[in-house]
């Protein structure tokens, strides 16, 4: 039986209860019989029996030495991007400081403060606000009986409210202090539907939507579109309705469409007025025209490489019998069908993505007009690869045709016939086509096999990325008009494919060559790119020459910062930054611009940025907490929400105050026990009662 906190009465019977109970029953029966017979001294005998019974029960006073345990209160500060709107963050920090000072006055309270939703919390933090995850982590080591409650300082846009609210009641009252203002309004632009991939040259369909919250403020709104950093264009989009539009996929890799809707009359932030769609362009089928001037050992290398790729449609044109060959073979025995030269080189030439001349020389098979068509095809954006054989060093060279105007190197008329190992130049180690080729060792000789023939050329334009014998140019890459040209001054790539002296990286080199010629963004030699991994942005700049220009990053909220780039020996400079908010980040070096889209297409954090208590009202009702607006307690009316310690069974909130329950938990450090009936006093009292009863009965 407890008398006071830490004090109680304990019973320690001298005999087991199985013996005491019958004795007490017999004694009570004898006393009842005495009362029934009206015997004298019965009350004195009853007193003696009671004293002996208490002595047998052996009651004692137990005093516990208790040490109070502090209750734990948790303050969760919302540090998500939506808190950057207006004065919300300043209000939150001021309220946190005020609460911290107020709660320090309670000696029996331990305060824990956690921040949730900042950039360091991970990628999901910039898309959604998870306050209850942070709360659970903060009180993971605290027994629920010690929890005094929690205070959430937030704008109310919380995305991890538990479904089972009953479990929250165990931790005490959960109060919400809202940092925004009542009756806020905002406009947002959302992506309803957008594909992740599209075929190059074909448009994809997008669905967007403009919403005014809490109600529609206008019939339509102007949306500005900008694709891949190009010139802007404006369209009118109805407010509150889905709007369908088309996005042309102009190239492989990322096609980025920026969209921005004009501001409404009520705007909390322009961050959700902007969005972007990233569609990865893929080529349906790559059409390659391979023109082999004569049969040779390397012809099969080209054919096998191109046929091994299921996405390549190869048209192979081999000159088996030049016009000057006269051996009397009947015409009907020369071929089964006539090769469609006019259809390929005049009518359907623009349908090819890449043209390869392999060991070709002038023989009158292709008229000058068709070679002029190919030169014009390159100028307009086509891709040409020329692998020089012996014929390039002769007067029959392609350089002596209209194609000479797009060729990057002029033949000297000499051929080099001695063993050599192709080497990557310093420029080549910065060029994405040859940088990091397997087998290349910048500080020593490459590990691949030798070649034995090379045409001597003098480069006029372009970048020499590989050298051959006597450090003569071997592989030259050039941009001509809108197109690209690559020239390989040897026809012995096939030695690598046959594994001669260990072979070489012919497959990787030719793959990179083809993709660079077809303008794949990943192989641009002078480029600025941004890659997003979660909430981390990696900025990369590749250049053939050292570039000292600084990089400027602009955040979705229009804040700018300068990035410090670290360059390696391959010509790639990079920097990594942590994104603090979802949206479009713009990176520029003054000449080139790259875009990075961080977060989900429609991040919940920006879906509705109005401050509200609706999401947390159920939590307050279930736990006994309250929802209060910080802005209502500023401006000289009231100094702020008061904080009180309350009993667990009392009300935990009021109009201008919140309560944190006082649980009164403790640990017992010692126990003292004092008998309530000393043995001598018990015996004297019992004997005295019996003597008085005997004396009374003896009268």
List the helices and strands and how they pair.
Elements: E1 2-4, E2 7-11, H1 17-36, H2 42-57, E3 59-68, E4 71-78, H3 88-103, E5 109-116, H4 131-138, E6 147-154, E7 174-178, E8 186-193, E9 197-199, E10 203-213, E11 220-227, E12 233-238, E13 242-248, E14 253-261, E15 274-282, E16 286-292, H5 299-307, E17 312-318, H6 341-347, E18 354-358, H7 368-379, E19 383-387, E20 409-416, E21 423-424, E22 454-459, E23 463-467, E24 473-480, E25 483-488, H8 494-497, H9 506-517, E26 527-533, E27 536-542, E28 551-554, E29 560-563, E30 566-567, E31 572-578, E32 583-588, E33 593-598, H10 604-607, H11 614-623, E34 627-629, E35 642-646, E36 657-661, E37 666-675, H12 679-698
Parallel strand pairs: 4-5, 4-6, 6-7, 7-34, 9-15, 16-17, 16-18, 18-19, 19-25, 35-36
Antiparallel strand pairs: 1-2, 2-3, 3-37, 8-10, 10-13, 11-12, 11-14, 14-15, 20-22, 21-23, 23-24, 24-25, 26-27, 27-31, 28-29, 28-32, 30-31, 32-33
Explain this structure to me?
α2 runs antiparallel to α12 (679-698). With 699 residues, the protein is of the alpha/beta class. The longest helix is centred in the N-terminal third of the chain and has 20 residues, at 17-36. The radius of gyration is 44 Å and the shape is elongated. It is built from twelve helices and 37 strands. A hairpin with a 2-residue loop joins β24 and β25 (483-488). This is Glutamine amidotransferase domain-containing protein. The chain crosses the membrane at residues 14-35, 42-62, 676-694. Residues 82-109 form a coiled coil. InterPro entries: Class_I_gatase-like.
